[in-house]
Amino acid sequence: MTKYQRIYQELLDKIKTKEYKTGDYLPSENELMKTYGSSRDTIRKALQLLLQNGYIQKVVGKGSVVLDSERIAFPVSGISSFKELKESMDGTIETIVEEFTVVPADDKLKDELHMDDGNVYIIERVRSINGEKIILDKDYLNGNIIQGLTKQHAQDSIYEYIENELNLNISFSRKEITVIPATKHDKEVLDMLDYDLLVCVKSYSYLEDATLFEYTISKHRPDKFRFVDFARRSQ
Question: Can you give the residue ranges of the HTH gntR-type domain (predicted)?
Answer without folding.
Answer: 1-69
